[in-house]
Every structure is written in C-alpha cells, then in structure tokens.
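Lab manual, section 2.4: Encoding a predicted structure.

Procedure: take the sequence of the chain (303 residues), apply the prediction step described in section 2.3, and record the output as structure tokens. A sample record is shown.
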Amino acid sequence: MEPAMEALHREFIYIWYYFSVQFEQIFGYWVLGMALGSAVSVFAKDYIHRAFASLKGKKAGGFGIIAASVLGIASPLCMYGTIPLAASFSKSGIKDDYLAAFMMSSILLNPQLIVYSAALGGAVMAVRIVSCFLCGVSAGLMIRIFCKGSAFFDFHSFAEPESRDTDPRILMRYLKNLGRNVRATGGYFLIGILLSALFQRYVPADMMTALFGGNEALGVLMAATVGVPLYACGGGTIPLLQQWLWNGMSVGSAASFMLTGPATKITNLGALKIVLGVRRFIVYLAYVMLFSLITGIIVNLIL
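Recorded output:
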C-alpha cells in the first residue's frame, strides 16, 4: 500500500474509532428519546394542550406564565406545529403573555430533547431545563410589562394544524409517529456524531478550552454566536456538545449554545418572522442573545 493510502486508511480507522465510541455512548439516549417523544405526542399531547387552553379567562397572573412555560416544555411539537396551535389558542382568547411563554419554551425544549440531554450529564441537563423554563417565563413577563393593550403576535397566516396521529389502532399510531421521528432526526444524529469524531481527531482540546472555557464572558458570547449557524437538530448537537464539554467547554458556554441554537434555527426563524414582523423579530433576536449571554455568565459563576 502506498504511503498516502496508508495514511488515509489510518485516518479512517481513527475517525471510525471515535465515531463508534461516541455512537455507543449516545445511541441509547437517542432511542429512549424517540420512544418517549412519540409516546408523549400520541398519548399526552392533547391533554397538555387542553391544559394550556384552560388558562383562558383565568386571572392567574405570573403563575399563569409559569404554567404556560412548563406546558411549552412538555409539548412535543416543533415550531411549525407550535405556531399554528398558538394561533388557534389566540383566537380562543389566550393572552399574548401566556402565548409568548408557551412558544418560547416550546421552541427551546421538549420531552425528547430532555432525554437526549441526559447524555451530557445531570448538571448540564438540569441547567438546560431550568434555563429554558426561565427563558419562557421571562419572555411572558416582558410581553406583559411592555405590550399592555397591544397585540404582539399576528397569526392571520396560520391555521390550526391537522393531527397526523389518526390511525384508529393505538399501536400503529405510535409506531407511525416513531417512524416519523426517526426519519426526521436520524440523519442529523449520525452527522452530529461524525462531526464530533472529526473534532476529536483534528481540533486540539486546548483550543476548545481557550475558546469556550473558563468564566470569561467572551467565551460565553462566542458559544452563543456559534449556536446560530451550527444548530440544525437537537439530537444532532448532543454529540458535539458532549465532545466540546470533554475538551474544556464551560457549562455556561454550553447553556448559552443550547439557548441560541434552537431559538435561532433557520426553520424556526422563518415561521417567527411571519408572526412577529420585522421590528418585533429583531427584538426577539436581541432578547435571545442577551438572555443566553446572561445565563451563560451566571451558570459559570455558580458552577
């Protein structure tokens, strides 16, 4: 074998080794996340959404915003399912502050992603849950304080989504939902592991520590900024985050990445631009970046 081919073969073996090790570590979390996400979508989604709809007309104050943020995290829908649902809630009389808390936390987290995040360790998973919850609550409070008497959202372009879980056979309904979840996330999951293997092979650990480690605000800001173009799928970023944390990324930087990533995912931004308009869309981006930066700094100070 020629030297160039030997070197290429050796690199392939290294990358395959890193890929296989991380695949074995994370695959179980991905499968469990798929199973749980589909179970919530098929068996609990309607209960969750009815619980949110029940907030209409109640004078719950800040507790209503807290409940809305919790229900947003529990909802299994993606953004293009959440916004039409929010449109139907808005037409039924749900206030914008509740809608903002529900939508914000729903963008950031769902039961499936919580299970994925367990692969990052208990501390990081807890930070993700708490920060996403507080981001939803803060969004609702901001709308309540600064948008009194004026509508923040424009849902005229969206209609209530049709349910795809209509098979009368319960087991088939679940299996079909599970198949859709696997098809939607499986490719991103494998790409994320491959990127992680490439990072592990070619990016020095001390470089990651220098970029994203320590308590420096710059590292948190860089992680928040990187989250904008790199985030494509929650499951696909877990292998990357795991590798970065091993290589010296601070938990605060990871928290910042986990906030800006889903909040600025290109498919989510397209839908949000429609319901917010230009000025409020800019306000949304500024809010996400500022909240993620502050969260990352606070997490690093605590941990």
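Check your result against the sample. The chain has a mean pLDDT of 86.
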